[in-house]
Amino acid sequence: MSRHDDQGRRLCTATTRKGEPCRAAANNGAIVCRMHGASAPQVKAKSARNLLEELIEPALQALEDIVQDVKQPASARVAAARDILDRTGYKPVIQVQGMPSRAQVADWIEEAEAEQT
After folding, report:
1. 19: alpha, beta or left, given left = phi > 0 and alpha = psi -120 to 50?
2. CB 3.0 to 4.6 Å from 12: which of 33, 49, 73, 87, for a disulfide?
3. What distance in Å separates the CA atoms of residue 65 and residue 80, rounded to the nearest whole number?
4. What is the distance between the alpha carbons of residues 91 and 46, in angstroms, rounded to a whole number?
5. How far apart are CA 63 and CA 50, in angstroms?
6. Closest among 56, 31, 54, 52 to 43, alpha carbons compared
7. Among residues 90, 93, 65, 94, which one has the least CA distance to residue 80?
């Protein structure tokens, strides 16, 4: 049986040393807080499996339904397909360039000044 706080978060099911229910929020996908074992590797693995079953699979199924529904506009079907690909590891490669070096900036300034004269 799970308990929830005023904000709707699932509370830890463990008890304190005094025998009172723990008031900490349970980690995502787990039934206990980090102080009561949610940091353990096996609990983390089980939490990940729980989240996969509870959240990810239904979300991907909903996206798949949109892709296969011919009544949906083409843009919605393409967006859903793109979301499925993004979430399954087929994202486009994004290259991020760092800041230019001082030498590069100096070269650009020289080129700009040369073009003005």
Report:
1. left
2. 33
3. 9
4. 26
5. 20
6. 31
7. 65
Least Cα distance to 87 among 58, 44, 50 occurs for 58
Question: ∠ CA 25-30-34 to the nearest 5 degrees?
Answer: 55
| pLDDT higher than 90, residue 105 | no
Instruction: Return the bridge partners of 25, or none.
Output: 11
pLDDT 10s digits, 85-102: 887 777 777 777 777 788
Give dist(CA 61, CA 56) in Å, integer. Answer: 9
CB 63 within 8 A of CB 84: yes
Question: Residue 3 has which token pair?
Answer: 């308990």
> Shortest CA distance to 47 belongs to which of 85, 95, 12?
12
What is the Cα–Cα distance from 1 to 24, expressed in whole angstroms?
A: 16
Per residue in 24-73, pLDDT (tens digit) is 988 888 889 999 988 899 988 888 888 777 777 888 889 899 999 999 99
